[in-house]
Design brief:
With 208 residues, the chain is α+β, with helices and mostly antiparallel strands. Helix content is 33%, strand content 39%. It is built from 5 helices and 10 strands. The strands form 2 sheets. Strands 1, 7, 8, 9 and 10 form a 5-stranded antiparallel beta sheet that branches. A 5-stranded antiparallel beta sheet has the order 2-3-6-4-5, sandwiched between helices. It comes from Streptomyces achmelvichensis.
């Protein structure tokens, strides 16, 4: 798995005009290919009169799924440069749709490539990106007597506390960078006089 990746900070739209053509780039985070396709369909419904609704998306921290569409523009002049911009910026789990309203002036292949790729780049600059870091999910179980202090200590040391469950004992779901697991094990033993139980789970990504 990748140690980290970047994604779109939030859904949004950025518009630019080139030689009287409007290029409207809609960007959004997308956890799955289905989410990306649903976003593309939604943007198309919002712009039924547009000349083109070209798209590109990258799903997976390792960019396992990549798709692009020129939607009627000359082959390779729209979707591919959009996809290349996402890849060049190391953006994953994201979808971009560039809607073009033709303004009557032909841009040529080079102009289209610059316009579509540039629209995505400008939208990324405007909306911003987030870095997501790979974490090991872990479960810490401790008695009620020590739980309050342990929760305070976890949060005070910047640990990623994802969930707290109260039953016969108290369970904390936390995220740990892989490199920190052994150091955390020692810290936890000291903090709870060896009474806490640490169980390591699978892997996930969280805010870096």
């Amino acid at each position: 798995m990748q140690e980290q990746y970047r994604t779109v900070a939030r859904e949004g739209v950025h518009e630019t005009e080139i030689n009287r053509s409007r290029f409207i780039c809609a960007l959004a985070p997308a956890a799955t290919e289905e989410e990306a396709q649903a976003f593309v369909a939604r943007v198309r419904r919002e712009h039924p009169a547009a000349s083109h609704n070209c798209f590109a998306y990258v799903i997976g921290a390792d960019a396992a799924v990549q798709k692009a569409s020129d939607d009627g523009e000359p082959g390779g002049t729209a979707g591919v440069p959009m996809l290349q911009m996402l890849m060049r910026r190391d953006v994953r789990y994201a979808v971009a749709v560039v809607t073009r309203y033709y303004g009557g002036v032909k841009l040529g292949a080079g102009g289209l490539i610059r316009a579509y790729g540039g629209a995505v780049g400008e939208a990324l600059d405007t909306l911003g990106t987030l870095t997501r870091q790979r974490f090991r999910l872990a479960r810490v179980t401790v008695d009620h007597q020590r739980a309050g202090k342990l929760e305070n200590d976890l949060r005070a040391t910047g640990r990623d506390v994802r969930e707290v469950r109260y039953a016969e004992a108290v369970t904390f779901e936390i995220g740990l960078p892989d490199a920190d697991v052994e150091a955390f094990r020692g810290w936890l033993a000291d903090a709870t006089a060896g009474t806490a139980v640490l169980e390591l789970g699978g892997e996930a990504y969280g805010d870096a």
